[in-house]
Amino acid sequence: MRIAFDAMGGDHAPQAMVEGILQAAREWPDTRFYLLGLQEEVQPHLPQESLSNVIVTPVTERIETDEEPVKAVRRKKDSSIVRGCRMVKEGEAEAFISAGNTGALMAAGLLVTGRLPGIERPALAPVFPTLNQQGMLVLDVGANPEARPEHLEQYALMGSLYAESVLGFARPRVGLLNIGAEEAKGTAFTKEAYSRISALPIHFIGNVEARDVLSGNCDVLVCDGFSGNILLKNTEGVAKAIFDRLKQEFTRTAFTKLAAAILKPGLKRFATDMDYKEHGGAPLLGLQGPVVKAHGSSDSRAVFNAVRQARLYVKQQVTTRITEELNRLERG
């Protein structure tokens, strides 16, 4: 297997990116890792004794987080993001992972790697932590702020296949984000999406309200990119606020500090269960090859988990399965 990785993307690049890839290279010696980055910045973080399955692939440009995505992709042809997406397109790599500029990665995915035949809009699909510790795939969370009902229909199909193949859900339960659980609730947009998804050969359980998302009452949650991005940012913000407030309360007095010491093992388990780093990255489903967006603040553990996720993506032939399912639906 061949996986390309963006060493220049992310808050802790290139050190955390290189460390994560080295861990992955030792864990999976059958996989070749192409480390795309500026030679002078990547080289100092590599061990003196190089690993045979880690190949440093120099680039001359990088796309910064504040750059306008489409312009940057078109102007910086030799950036790590553009090169990685091109390697997938041309078959040099079977997957590409980046923690860099999300918009640029989505633009490069569309303009360089390209969409699968029949897919109108790719979807960004992270795994949300849930209280039942299983996680939930949510798509879309920002690739397409303005979606149509047929896009959500395709999201539901792709999400179900990915959740089964990569996340290990048997017959994934697919829900549609809405303001009420009843079938008649929502706008004309969500009602038509409901009708379309209901006709798919998947386990559709109907509408799901935002307040029930973290309870894990579905395995795949479908929504437009605008609503999904708000849901993502709100969930991250609430989680951070809760942990910050708990820290304040547990350090307020000697008594609360003692209570914190007693509860510490349980709190650490809870924090791990709710940590995005345990779930790897978010695939851009609907492209002609696996492209995975790792979180911008990924550390080496998150990088390692993103590699594990990408390997499953490739091994389970998710892209081929999506294409076959689309062709089957078109044949009626």
From TrEMBL:
<dbReference type="GO" id="GO:0004366">
    <property type="term" value="F:glycerol-3-phosphate O-acyltransferase activity"/>
</dbReference>
<comment type="function">
    <text>Catalyzes the reversible formation of acyl-phosphate (acyl-PO(4)) from acyl-[acyl-carrier-protein] (acyl-ACP). This enzyme utilizes acyl-ACP as fatty acyl donor, but not acyl-CoA.</text>
</comment>
<dbReference type="Pfam" id="PF02504">
    <property type="entry name" value="FA_synthesis"/>
</dbReference>
<keyword id="KW-0808">Transferase</keyword>
<keyword id="KW-0444">Lipid biosynthesis</keyword>
<comment type="subunit">
    <text>Homodimer. Probably interacts with PlsY.</text>
</comment>
<dbReference type="InterPro" id="IPR003664">
    <property type="entry name" value="FA_synthesis"/>
</dbReference>
<keyword id="KW-0963">Cytoplasm</keyword>
<keyword id="KW-0594">Phospholipid biosynthesis</keyword>
<keyword id="KW-0443">Lipid metabolism</keyword>
<comment type="similarity">
    <text>Belongs to the PlsX family.</text>
</comment>
<dbReference type="InterPro" id="IPR012281">
    <property type="entry name" value="Phospholipid_synth_PlsX-like"/>
</dbReference>
<protein>
    <recommendedName>
        <fullName>Phosphate acyltransferase</fullName>
        <ecNumber>2.3.1.274</ecNumber>
    </recommendedName>
</protein>
<comment type="pathway">
    <text>Lipid metabolism; phospholipid metabolism.</text>
</comment>
<keyword id="KW-0012">Acyltransferase</keyword>
<keyword id="KW-1208">Phospholipid metabolism</keyword>
